[in-house]
């Protein structure tokens, strides 16, 4: 990861730390002037750092919105919310409870879904290592990881060793029709959009899923797409 501050600025910071040991009046004046110089150098270093980020993003055709998040100083923290009754909650427990209740109500489905049990003959064949490897290579990189901190880059880098292990894991999920504990859980972060920051409706939730769980859904999705392609009549080949 590239440093934001130049070597010269780091030297000035070290010099200020050394000069603060001397508490004489002359030394305090020198430290005061040095602080002004350091602030000026930091602003210059940050401008150069931001320019290099934007320039590199434009050369690689990356999203400038993502670059803005990378160069931002600090993060907006959710420290209080206004409840439906008008009261303000500030504790972590109350914030989590209010957020959970709001989005559960927002995304709750009222549609009735009929469930039909499948016969044993309808069981899917086991996943093949080639299918898992193909799905893994199709997954996008540069995404924020789940709480386990496993990234797509890690799996791709060690795919020769990990694909057989992942294939056995996914086939176990397929056989028992259940995923390991917490594998299907998600970690939700809230991104402020605009408006009143005390109201949850002004936040956009982003769910971070386990990379291994996303790999499982990717393999299944590839299966479904393959079945649909084979079922499509020749008359609709161009659609």
Written account of the structure:
The structure is a single chain. The chain is mainly α. The chain has two domains: 7-71, no CATH class; 117-236, no CATH class. The protein has eight helices and four strands; from the N terminus they run αααββααααββα. The protein has helices at residues 7-19, 25-59, 64-71, 92-107, 129-138, 152-157, 159-176, 211-231, and strands at 81-82, 88-89, 186-192, 203-209. A two-stranded antiparallel sheet has the order 1-2. β1 and β2 form a beta hairpin. α1 packs antiparallel against α2, α5 packs across α7 and α5 (129-138) crosses α8 (211-231). It is extended and about 90 Å long.
Strand coverage percent: 5-15%
How are the strands of the largest sheet arranged?
A: 1-2
Rounded mean pLDDT score:
86
Q: How many E-type strands?
A: 4
Segments where pLDDT lies below 50 for 5+ residues? none
Number of spatially distinct domains? 2
Please report the distance between the alpha carbons of the first and last residues. Answer: 46 Å
Structural class: mainly alpha
H and E order: HHHEEHHHHEEH
Principal-axes shape call: extended
Radius of gyration: 26 Å
SS field, number of helical segments: 8
| Largest β sheet strand count, sense and barrel closure | 2 strands, antiparallel
The percentage helix is: 40-55%
Protein name: Reverse transcriptase domain-containing protein
Organism: Plectus sambesii
């Amino acid at each position: 990861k590239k440093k934001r501050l130049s070597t010269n600025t780091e030297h000035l910071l070290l010099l200020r730390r050394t000069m603060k040991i001397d508490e004489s009046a002359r030394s305090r004046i020198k430290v005061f002037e040095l602080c002004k110089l350091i602030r000026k150098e930091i602003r210059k270093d940050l401008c150069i750092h931001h320019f290099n980020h934007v320039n590199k993003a434009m050369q690689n055709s990356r999203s400038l919105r993502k670059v803005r998040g990378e160069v931002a100083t600090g993060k907006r923290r959710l420290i209080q919310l206004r409840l439906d009754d008008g009261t303000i909650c500030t504790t972590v427990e109350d914030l989590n409870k209010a957020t959970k209740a709001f989005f559960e109500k927002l995304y709750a489905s009222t549609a009735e879904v009929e469930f039909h049990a499948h016969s044993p003959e309808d069981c899917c064949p086991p996943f093949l290592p080639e299918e898992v490897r193909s799905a893994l290579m199709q997954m996008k990189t540069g995404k924020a990881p789940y709480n386990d901190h496993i990234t797509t880059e890690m799996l791709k880098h060690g795919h020769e060793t990990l694909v057989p292990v992942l294939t056995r894991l996914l086939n176990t999920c397929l056989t028992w029709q259940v995923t390991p504990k917490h594998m299907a859980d998600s970690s939700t972060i809230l991104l402020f959009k605009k408006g009143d920051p005390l109201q949850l409706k002004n936040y956009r939730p982003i769910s971070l899923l386990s990379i291994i769980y996303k790999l499982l859904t990717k393999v299944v999705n590839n299966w479904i797409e393959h079945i649909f392609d084979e079922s499509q009549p020749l008359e609709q080949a161009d659609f």
